[in-house]
UniProtKB/TrEMBL annotation:
Listed GO MF terms: transmembrane transporter activity
Stated name of the protein: Permease
Regions that span the bilayer: 12-34, 54-76, 83-101, 107-127, 148-167, 173-196, 237-260, 272-290, 302-320, 326-348, 360-379, 391-408
Coarse class of the protein's main subcellular location: membrane
Organism ancestry: Bacteria, Bacillati, Bacillota, Bacilli, Bacillales
Entries under InterPro entries matching the protein: Atg22-like, ATG22/LtaA_families, MFS_dom, MFS_trans_sf
Subcellular location: Cell membrane
Gene3D superfamilies tied to this protein: MFS general substrate transporter like domains
Domain Major facilitator superfamily (MFS) profile: 236-424
Coiled coil: none
Membrane-related topology note: Multi-pass membrane protein
Keywords: Membrane, Transmembrane, Transmembrane helix, Transport
Span of the signal peptide: none
PANTHER family: AUTOPHAGY-RELATED PROTEIN 22
């Protein structure tokens, strides 16, 4: 950290800041809290699960469809920081509201959660795009990787604190209910997210931009149309996005379905929780290692290494039987999960025209969000047809092979604005 500039440190710390939301609100605590609240209100389990799915789908779809146009507007001077701040405020305020809305108000809780999804997703579009403003192309791999590493480390602290509160309340060791302990976890998430975003708000500025025009919204739509018209000029960039769509779908599917997969193998919830924690810890140094190796062997090469490791993971999953096997699989995932995500971000940042980074990271966001459809469907269909969960996970090998083959076709090039200008 001491070798980074103030801007780089401030940017990296935002990964540390928002990691609490990812693990506590998206994955670990709030889904269970909502299910319990809906159950207390008399909703059937299947109905509350359906509402949960609809809420996630609608919020994700909304921010994904808005991402390119918001990014196009944010490319004008002064707008990127404003948009980042707006979505950050939206996310943190409604995350805190999750802690104060009565637990019997399941619909209000679900609406608040949907707003947090929009705030979290919207903020990340502009956060990723700020990478071009805080560092040089030569340092993007390292800085992006350190961001993911800080995120993994940062997620463990509020996670341990919150889970400890909930477990202690369950055992009546502390005089609060599980409901209050869960609400405290939401408050911790909001405070953690807000506190460690201060350096980002204070020190990171928009360096690359287009000069403002009289009607930035209308011009944003116009610029988006121009980009679509000239899409053939950006072949390396969009070829990478297609490759990214496939392999990141595989990565995300393994992350989101790992708990269900472990349960099918008979692994206890306590062991799954420990494995989840260990994966976060191990992933942090490996993300940094990927960044250092990318500087030596090129980002594309290390992305292909990561894809190859995931092909090994899918193959090993087919033969999985014991808890030890699942531990080995989890550590293999930890070795490449952060690295492949971090290098994808930095590789894309090197390709985009810096003055149009927000618009293009809007497309990056769309491909990331929609790369959560094919993988789970493929796993579910294969598992159902074969009657074997292992076969379902093995089927993901197809996504990594397709993604790797397309990535091989991406030309070795740097920022496309050096050869093609958006204004052409």
């Amino acid at each position: 950290m001491s070798r980074m500039s103030k801007q780089e440190k401030s940017w990296v710390f935002y990964d540390w800041a928002n990691s609490a939301y990812s693990i506590l609100i998206t994955t670990a605590v709030f889904p269970l809290y909502f299910k319990a609240a809906a159950n207390e209100a008399g909703l059937a389990a299947s109905t509350s699960t359906a509402y949960w799915g609809y809420a996630n789908s609608f919020a994700t779809l909304l921010i994904s469809l808005c991402a390119p146009i918001l990014g196009s507007i944010a490319d004008f001077r002064g707008f990127k920081k404003r948009f980042f701040t707006f979505f950050f405020a939206l996310g943190i305020i409604f995350t805190f509201l999750l802690a104060v809305v009565p637990s019997n108000q399941w619909l209000v809780l679900l609406i608040c959660y949907m707003v947090t999804v929009i705030g979290f997703g919207g903020t990340n579009i502009f956060y990723d795009a700020f990478l071009v403003d805080v560092t040089s192309e030569e340092r993007m791999n390292q800085i992006s990787s350190k961001g993911f590493a800080m995120g993994y480390i940062g997620s463990t602290i509020p996670f341990i604190l919150s889970i400890a509160l909930i477990l202690l309340s369950q055992q009546s060791i502390i005089p609060i209910s599980v409901t209050v302990a869960s609400q405290a976890a939401f408050a911790i998430t909001a405070l953690w997210w807000g506190l460690f975003t201060i350096p980002m708000l204070k020190n990171v500025k928009q360096v690359y931009y287009k000069e403002r025009v009289p009607n930035p919204v209308a011009n944003g739509f116009k610029q988006l149309f121009v980009t679509f018209k000239k899409i053939r000029l950006y072949r390396p960039l969009f070829l990478f996005l297609v490759a990214y769509f496939f392999y990141i779908d595989g990565v995300n599917t393994i992350i989101t379905m790992s708990t269900a997969y472990g349960s099918d193998l008979g692994i206890t919830s306590t062991n799954l929780l420990i494995i989840l924690f260990a994966t976060q810890v191990v992933a942090a140094p490996f993300a940094i290692i990927y960044g250092k190796l990318a500087d030596k062997f090129k980002g594309k090469t290390m992305l292909l290494v990561g894809i190859f490791i995931y092909i090994v993971i899918c193959t090993y999953a087919y033969f999985l039987k014991t808890t030890l096997d699942f531990w080995i699989l989890a550590m293999l995932v930890a070795s490449s999960q952060g690295g492949i995500q971090a290098l994808s971000r930095s590789y894309f940042a090197k390709l985009v025209p810096k003055e149009s980074a927000n618009e293009f990271f809007g497309f990056y966001s769309i491909f990331y969000k929609f790369a959560a459809i094919l993988g789970p469907f493929l796993v579910g269909l294969t598992a159902q047809l074969t009657g074997n969960t292992n076969s379902g996970v093995f089927s993901l090998i197809v996504l990594f092979i397709i993604g790797g083959l397309i990535l091989l076709r991406v030309p070795e090039t740097t920022n496309i604005s050096k050869t093609n200008s958006l204004s052409q």
